[in-house]
Amino acid sequence: MPEAARPSVGQRKTSRKCYTVSSMATGLVYDPIYLEHDTGALPEGPERLRAIMARLEESRLLARLVRIPARLADKPTIHLVHPETYLRRIQKAVAIGDRTFEHSDVGIGPASWKAALRAVGGVLALCDAVMERRVDNGFCAIRPPGHHARHENAGGFCLLNNVAIGARYLQRHHGLERVAIVDWDLHHGDGTQHIFEEDPSVYFISLHEHPSHLYPGTGYAWEHGKGAGEGFTLNLPMQPEADDADYQAAFAKFVLPALRRFGPQAILISAGFDAHMYDPMGHLRLSSVGYAWMTRQLKNLAQTACNGRIISVLEGGYNPRALAASVQTHLEVLAEPTFEEALMDLKSGMY
């Protein structure tokens, strides 16, 4: 919805003939180019996004979301995280027809470089939309994912670190001083941690299956940053069979207090949904309801800390049906009216 057409809380319609519950404006980034990123037989494939978009269409949630067009990311912005020498290696591998990039778990095809640029560009477009208040929050249904990509290394299906570039863009382009990244993917976001572990301006929090059981073997509780960044990394490794209640306890005891102390000006979510009980990749037992609960906690905190600014970015999730259901609940919570909006509507007679 264009900014001029989007009413603020104090300007929402008060006609008693209108019975539609008002909601926050929630953005969605998606582009067909993401389907063309060909990873071969790897589980990170285009059917993931097809399942998400079909579910959003069938549930009629898609019509409630504000579509944010992705753009091609420019190299100077990508250079905030990845050097040109690394980008040239990716481009060369794609150009000569390689089917993997430096690791067997990083599949590539002819469209992979363009898809990667537009994946990053989609995150940047959503950052702009949130900061300019064209939307309150949003979700990027993109691929390739990014949280295993380090400064000069790919890994775990990831080429460019979408979330890390988004965080740096918020700082350099929009002037934010404190950005938080909450990563609830099944796997530890080792690339994101590597990029920010010496930086006190970015608080990285990761909930993931214990590294003694799962790739990439990092993310122990004693990893909490280095140098100036000491204390600005929080790893919460979860034991196999951890479920919604375990995540809720971790949020209540560690995640939410840490975020309140830090006072982020925006929250990015590395939103992997592969900790779901039906996902084939790990041993955790989250449900779509559990993802909705975590989303609501972050949304409530963001309303107080940073004007509701949440930029959520897809990472893992390899059971298409479970992934689609989890993304649906995630977006439904992001699009819910806030308490203040609901109260205003109640007073105006919209309920």
Short account of what is shown:
The protein has 351 residues and is of the alpha/beta class.
| Poorly predicted sequence stretches spanning 5 or more consecutive residues | 1-22
Per DSSP, the total helix count is: 10
Distance between the termini: 23 Å
Tell me the count of domains.
Answer: 1
CATH topology: Arginase, Chain A
Described by the principal axes of the CA atoms, the overall outline is globular
Residues in β-strands, percent: 5-15%
| Chain-averaged pLDDT | 92
Tally of DSSP β-strands: 10
Tell me about this structure.
Helix 1 links the parallel strand 1 and strand 2 (66-68). The protein starts with 25 loop residues before the first strand and ends with a helix. The protein has 351 residues and is an alpha/beta fold. The protein has 10 helices and 10 strands. It has helices spanning 47-58, 75-78, 84-95, 112-131, 162-172, 190-196, 244-262, 288-305, 320-334, 339-348; strands at 26-29, 66-68, 100-101, 103-107, 137-140, 179-183, 202-209, 233-238, 266-271, 310-314. It has a single domain (28-348), classed as Arginase, Chain A. The model is unreliable at 1-22 (pLDDT under 50). Helix 1 packs across helix 9, helix 4 (112-131) crosses helix 5 and helix 7 packs parallel to helix 8 (288-305). The protein has an 8-stranded parallel sheet, with helices on both faces. A two-stranded antiparallel sheet has the order 3-4.
Characteristic terms for this protein:
single chain; 351 residues; eight-stranded parallel sheet; 10 strands
